[in-house]
Amino acid sequence: MDTFPCTSCGKCCENLKDTLLNLHQTDPLTSFLLSIFPYKAKEDGSCEMLIDGLCSVYSNRPIICNIKAMAKLKNIPLDDYYRESAQYCNILINASDLSDDYLVKF
Hints:
The structure is a single chain. 42% of the residues lie in helices and 4% in strands. The chain has 5 helices and 2 strands. It has a two-stranded antiparallel ribbon with strand order 1-2. The longest helix is centred in the last third of the chain and has 18 residues, at 78-95. 12% of the residues are buried.
């Protein structure tokens, strides 16, 4: 699969505060990249670059927000990283009580 089947639910960007608070629960590389994440979480916990449900810096987003770049950086086969990311996405989607239409199918 060439591109990640993102359903554009926005939950990854809406949960930035929780992600940053729990950065010690990830692998060292991810923890480091989160520790230098250039944007702040808004009061509601979302990324300050999330505007009207869309990333305002998408074309120049941090590497940690780029699934394909992260797979390469971690030296993980792309399909394996997509599968792992899809599982995390679906956890966020289920926790948010979104429609099953938003679940990432991989």
